[in-house]
Amino acid sequence: AAALRDSSASALVKNLLVVLVWLVISGINGSLVATFFRHQELYEDPRYILFIHMVVNDAVQLSTTTALFVLSYTLYRIQVSVCCVFILLAVFTTRNTPLNLAAMALECYVAVCRPLRHAQICTARRTLLLIALIWLLCVTPDVTDLFFTLATEPLSFFHQSVFCLRSNIFKGPVLARKRTAFDVLYFCCVFLTLLFTYLKVLFAARALSTQRTSAQKARKTILLHGAQLFMCLLSYVSPSAEVLLQLIFPGQILEIRFANFLIVYVLPRCLSPIIYGFRDRKFRKHLKMSLQLLRCRVQGPKEAP
């Protein structure tokens, strides 16, 4: 199946589309990151620290998967050691997203249900420590895959050239079962966290009339986090769905894989800017200011006598 190749025209169109989408999303993410670091009000707020962490994480994930997509057409096979770097980076950032969603949902819960203690509980320092913990939880399970492969494969294996897939690098049923167990554990924990925070915020909206508006906004945010979690889940069920679709449409394997790449790996990366970058009033205000400042800098030399 991995030997199937697109025609030159089809490969060119697909790669141009993927790179164009990457450029657009990267431009949006870059403007969000620049806005964040320009305003002290944002980079000292735990909510926006978690948000910008997700934006950077998604940018790295999208850049890695896009690079792998293009390399699969240009080089087709790459050295195992190089493939390991790409695969681990993609896996770390993919696993990072649901845990970051859980942290953001907990921050919403504290802001609505514990407003008087929010400033004490949610500090910038604690948020950075939480991000470090998230990365530790993301990295640990998959680093063991690398150690297992180093221990069981000869050194010559890492100098071979392969089609860069996770299953071609970290082989063995034991590793597959371990990955599945960790994926199920992480997603169950995140789902229960989102459900808990949503219900708590829902009850708070009914009980506290003064907090009703902020609680309703927090509920909508948590629901959007739930939508993001569902889209993250697609990356784990997509291999089975891909096999099923190939049975239904046996002549469209390459198109199915391309659609799967766009829906599972590209589309979810568009949600983070929408949830906070454009939907959040405070961030939107600072983003408009940054864009206006940039426009003035660009137009300034043209208007000068």
Automatic annotation (TrEMBL):
Keywords: Membrane, Receptor, Transmembrane, Transmembrane helix. It is found in: Membrane. One of its GO terms (molecular function) is G protein-coupled receptor activity. It holds the Pfam family 7tm_1. It comes from the Eukaryota. InterPro entries: GPCR1_Superfamily_Member, GPCR_Rhodpsn, GPCR_Rhodpsn_7TM. Its main location: membrane. The chain crosses the membrane at residues 16-37, 49-70, 76-94, 127-148, 184-209, 221-238, 258-278. Residues 28-276 form the G-protein coupled receptors family 1 profile domain. Gene3D superfamilies: Rhodopsin 7-helix transmembrane proteins. GO terms for cellular component: membrane. The keyword Membrane applies. PANTHER family: G_PROTEIN_RECEP_F1_2 DOMAIN-CONTAINING PROTEIN, ODORANT RECEPTOR. This is Odorant receptor. It comes from Tetraodon nigroviridis (Spotted green pufferfish).
